[in-house]
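Researcher: Re-running this chain for the archive, since the previous output was lost when a drive failed. Same request as before.
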Amino acid sequence: MAEATKPEAAHGVLTIAIVGRPNVGKSTLFNRLIGKRRAIVGDESGITRDRLYGETDWQGRHLRVVDTGGIIPEDKEFIPAEIFRQARVALDEADAVILVVDGRTELAAPDLELARLLQRTGKPLFLAVNKIDTLAQEADIEDFRRLGIREMLPVSSEQGTGVAELLDAILQEINAEVAGEAEAAEETTEKVQETKVAIIGRPNVGKSTLLNRLTGTARAIVSPIPGTTRDAVDELVERDGHSYRFIDTAGIRRKGKTKLMAEKLSVVMARKHLEAADVALLVIDAVEGVTALDANIAGYAHESGRSLIILVNKWDLAGSGRPDGKKPADRNKFEQEVRDALKFLSYAPVLFISATSGKGMEKVFPVLEQVAAERRKRISTSEMNRFLEMVDFDRASVPASKRVKIYYLTQAAVAPPTFVLFTDRPVKLHFSYERFLENQIRRAFGFLGTPIWIKNRAR
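Model: Regenerated structure tokens:
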């Protein structure tokens, strides 16, 4: 597979990293800065694990804000260590860093250690003393000067007070002349059409490993612990003149099985991010086989009009250890299992990969490019009506009482391709009639990987 490259971050876009210990209000500040409920916020500590990106504008400058997982410098557990590594990547990318501390608690040794680590980066550093909701509380923040950070500002991420002053201070620190030259360079850069790609599937099927493999980075936290990804994380990749924004959604579970508040919110947000995407990569575990939950998740994508590619992951491990005892002899048999379980996705291509080893990954980008193009394809009305003349509707297995007289057919929209059928009766098309027409359209015009919507209107 050709190497996926990550675009430069510095063309006039100021990148600000938000760091701090768990549960000090980083995600609330992140949401406040970007003006969206992008990160999950709750009372449980350590909810944010991956780094999240958001964008906003302030005083004519475009800002890229990065929310990181809560850092405890001396914690050696696997997940905290991964969070620390993710935060270090964010620091490397950042033009400025905001250290968030909880103004309602006493200064602790981990705060001092974290401040020392951040000062060694040499990046402009700002201390946001959070949860200062009243003027009376501002007098209590002086103890935080012991952290040795010159720029210290009281803020209330919840109420929004002090946030404007924080942004003003950051912009004053940045060299305006260099930033202006970078912005001018960005304006001359040719815009590339962006395809949003959601990576969906059950927890622990390899979605984060796939994201890392596709982007050529260790972007998302990968671990053997199911449900590691709670927020949706994304990465922009430019490849062969095409721009792809990959979104790794939290593993979707049935709502009855999501006990923690963070997991329940993850289900809602994962579906929201899926609906904002153009193409969904449905990841299926080759070892476990196709499950009912795989079908439910695929149904979300299909019903919302997303284009789909089915990725059978861990194919290098298939044939051993499957809970159902089945051992597919070859790809054809396994693909038939997929087709039987997901009959409504007959239009979706199936690829066999190993995200861990990289085997089969060279096929993903070419198919993704093809499916994205098919999603945006438009057929002229004259072509559609020439096609309509060639279709033998007597072959459609539809009761005579449900048949309609067709006058003409036109494509009304793309993404997904939507066709309007003008007939003699304002009725909902019979399922068999609609399926027959869809199959004929696909046979004539393709539309690989994308659902087709057909609507009926009486002339």
